[in-house]
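quick q for whoever's on today - can somebody do inverse folding on this one?? i tried earlier but teh output was garbage lol. tokens:
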């Protein structure tokens, strides 16, 4: 078998397991499949969730939100024995779910509701919740931010039955009070909670623009010991400051999350679009933070009219405007927009950058203001936000995107991301090596090239100046005009259309035009222009022609103002053969020799999975794996692809997950491994000569339909009970019983007889 695929994506083997920018989630909790986003209330389906927490093989999910997602289920779900449904990253997922083995999780206990199907809003009590947003669990104590009841509920041990009542309430004097307040014992819409190793409770008291520390909770209405963001427990320095809020090292605006550990306190300062870091545990009220992330310094964002945008100070310029002044991307690795959650493993910093629909990872907790992130999840790069349903319909609820991530949890290996509007928890797992976003491509056509043409017609005359201008609609001058390159040919008395085409081919290719290569098609008196850049990017190449003098009899007709035909080979369909491209993907080279038998699910030590479903394998090598997309993924726009490799030394390595972009149909054709345009490879089903006979008309008793093959005659007498189908079948039986040169069989459509020579090759013709 000849492999005719080109390599367009690279992957590298990494010694340690790390997250990679733009990788996909490996697993999903709350939806089946990943892309479903179904609004439900059960032990499997989630509503528009917010908080997540993990400890002691237990996952906690707060099924409520304050950003308009539906449904709000007013409950908290507890998943025990998480390792039973989130296996080791190198393990093969059990095929218990026929559509999506990677869609996991069934809650064991629900708090705030009597059962898993209820989501009624009930008055405040010891066992009810009203839009809980934050959860914390340290393996011993459970804390829930019961946001709309202006309180935090505490369970001294993990609840074991549905609607189990809480042991203590914080922020209220008892379990039926709900009034907000501003004091050491009151709360106003708390969003986030955290429990330290000493069971000490930290609360992001969002509505009061502060973070409180209570210590271990031992009674109802317990008073806080420490406040950050305010100078004392009864002051709110942001009160009535709109729109000129205070931005300092000791202020906050609607903090939504707090994390404590490794001698640090980290706060998501939602309203000021920043993260605050204290390099030691604060000991005094209003103690200022040491480091700010997402802003250049503590006095930003500048909220007054005329303030300089943060991105101009934190991002590198991406060009100049019409006045020659530098321009900047709306976002980059150093900016934040309404971050809602922070998390650390003691070394790295994770931030749910909700307004930018992404999660940012710093490989080291930042030590300086405005430090850029190292890794982005949920977007293709640091400058993009492609989470618009209308603008990016193929990325809606995809396996590598979020729609407002609001909370984070970490189990030492897997990162759990609360994807509120998509009603799911995405589970990100690091890999031994990375599969880039373009790794999975249509195998027959791993790249496509846009093309255009110029057809020459009329009458050739001498001294006619022919011009072609080629540009790119994305490359413009300061006035917004496309920058073009001009190519000119002046005709001579000896010219023909063939020589004119040859001259343009030479001048364009000799100049090494940055956008196209030229080729002749003299049969149609045409100049072909093929984009240098593969796929949809080639469709941006512009094309113009002009002729001087105006009265010339030569005509140049373009195929259009731009090249067309560039497609996205990363869009693949169920049943399609795909090429997984990279480096060091296998230690062996192997291929299936007998394609008449079922394809194996493992070849040369390599397995490929989409949504946990094993894919049939055709061939493997260190640079590419040829596999078939499972039919079960039909109906989804995205799947999660993972490569699992058994190395020659016995070690098993797995890739980071990659988003497999799915489409209902995507026909393609194999081509010769030659420069574009290259001929397609089309083969007959059989090398034996064939013919077709159509049995039409009415079936009348006594008729004698006859088939002649050379001088051999096959006649059948029609019976009263016959139909066209039975007449066809009887003629087929006669031919197969007696004819030495052909065999007959029924064709699929209509009542047709298909004849096929018994010998192969041209000897069967005629």
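ok took a stab at it. sequence:
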């Amino acid at each position: 078998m000849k492999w005719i695929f080109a390599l367009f994506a690279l992957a590298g083997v990494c010694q340690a397991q790390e997250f990679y920018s733009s990788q996909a989630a490996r697993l999903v909790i709350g939806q089946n499949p990943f892309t479903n986003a179904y609004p439900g209330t059960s032990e499997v389906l989630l509503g528009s969730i917010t908080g997540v927490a993990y400890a002691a093989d237990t996952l906690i999910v707060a099924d409520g939100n304050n950003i308009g997602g539906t449904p709000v289920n007013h409950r908290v779900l507890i998943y025990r024995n998480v390792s039973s449904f989130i296996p080791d990253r190198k393990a093969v997922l059990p095929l218990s779910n026929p559509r999506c083995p990677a869609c996991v999780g069934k809650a064991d206990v629900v708090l705030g509701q009597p059962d898993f199907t209820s989501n009624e809003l009930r008055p405040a009590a010891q066992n009810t919740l009203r839009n809980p947003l934050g959860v914390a669990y340290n393996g011993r104590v459970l804390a829930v931010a019961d946001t709309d009841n202006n309180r935090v509920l505490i369970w001294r041990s993990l609840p074991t039955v549905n609607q189990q009542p809480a042991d203590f309430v914080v922020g209220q004097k008892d379990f039926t009070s709900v009034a907000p307040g501003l004091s050491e014992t009151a709360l106003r819409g708390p969003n986030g909670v955290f429990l330290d190793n000493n069971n000490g409770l930290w609360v992001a008291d969002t509505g009061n623009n502060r973070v409180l520390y209570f210590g271990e909770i031992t009674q109802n209405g317990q008073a806080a010991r420490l406040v950050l963001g305010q100078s004392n427990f009864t002051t709110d320095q942001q009160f009535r400051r709109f729109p000129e809020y205070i931005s300092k090292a000791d202020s906050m605006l609607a903090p939504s999350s707090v994390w404590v550990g490794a001698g640090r306190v980290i706060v998501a300062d939602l309203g000021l679009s920043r993260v605050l870091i204290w390099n030691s545990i604060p000991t005094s009220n209003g103690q200022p933070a040491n480091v700010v992330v997402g802003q250049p310094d503590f006095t930003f964002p500048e909220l007054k009219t005329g303030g300089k945008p943060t991105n101009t100070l934190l991002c590198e310029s991406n060009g100049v405007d019409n006045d020659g002044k530098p321009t900047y991307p709306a976002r980059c690795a150093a900016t934040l927009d309404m971050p809602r959650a922070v998390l650390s493993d003691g070394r790295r910093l994770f931030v749910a950058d909700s307004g930018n629909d992404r999660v940012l990872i710093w490989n080291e907790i930042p030590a300086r203001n405005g430090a850029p992130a190292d890794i982005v999840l949920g977007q293709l790069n640091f400058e993009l936000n492609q989470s618009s349903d209308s603008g990016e319909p193929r990325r809606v609820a995809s396996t590598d995107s979020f729609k407002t991530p609001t909370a984070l949890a970490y189990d030492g290996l897997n990162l759990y991301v609360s994807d509120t509007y998509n009603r799911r928890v995405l589970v990100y797992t690091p890999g031994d090596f990375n599969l880039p976003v373009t790794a999975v491509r249509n195998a027959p056509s791993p790249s496509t090239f846009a093309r255009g043409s110029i057809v020459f017609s009329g009458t050739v005359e001498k001294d006619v100046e022919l011009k072609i201008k080629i540009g790119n609609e994305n490359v413009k001058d300061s006035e917004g005009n496309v920058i073009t390159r001009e190519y000119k040919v002046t005709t001579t008395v000896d010219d023909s259309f063939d020589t004119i085409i040859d001259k343009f081919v030479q001048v364009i290719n000799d100049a090494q035009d940055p956008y196209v290569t030229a080729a002749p098609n003299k049969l149609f008196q045409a100049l072909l222009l093929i984009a240098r850049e593969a796929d949809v990017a080639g469709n941006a190449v512009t094309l113009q022609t002009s002729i001087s003098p105006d009265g010339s009899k030569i005509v140049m007709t373009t195929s259009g103002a731009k090249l067309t035909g560039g497609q996205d080979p990363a869009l693949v369909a169920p049943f399609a053969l795909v090429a997984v491209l990279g480096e060091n993907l296998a230690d062996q080279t192997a291929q299936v020799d007998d394609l008449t038998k079922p394809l194996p699910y493992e070849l040369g030590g390599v397995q490929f999975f989409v949504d946990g479903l094993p894919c049939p394998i055709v061939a493997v090598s260190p640079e590419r794996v040829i596999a078939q997309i499972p039919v079960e993924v039909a109906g989804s726009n995205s799947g999660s692809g993972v490569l699992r490799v058994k190395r020659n030394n016995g070690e098993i390595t797995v890739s980071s997950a990659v988003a497999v972009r799915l489409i209902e149909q995507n026909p393609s054709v194999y081509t010769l491994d030659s420069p574009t345009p290259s001929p397609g490879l089309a083969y007959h089903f059989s090398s034996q000569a064939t013919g077709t006979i159509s049995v039409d008309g009415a079936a009348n008793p006594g008729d004698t339909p006859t088939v002649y093959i050379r001088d051999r005659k096959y006649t059948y007498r029609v019976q009263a009970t016959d139909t066209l189908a039975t007449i066809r079948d009887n003629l087929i039986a006669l031919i197969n019983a007696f004819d030495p040169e052909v065999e007959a069989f029924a064709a699929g459509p209509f009542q047709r007889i298909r004849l096929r020579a018994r010998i192969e090759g041209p000897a069967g013709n005629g």
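fwiw The helical segments are 311-314, 497-510, 724-738. also The radius of gyration is 34 Å. so keep that in mind when u check it
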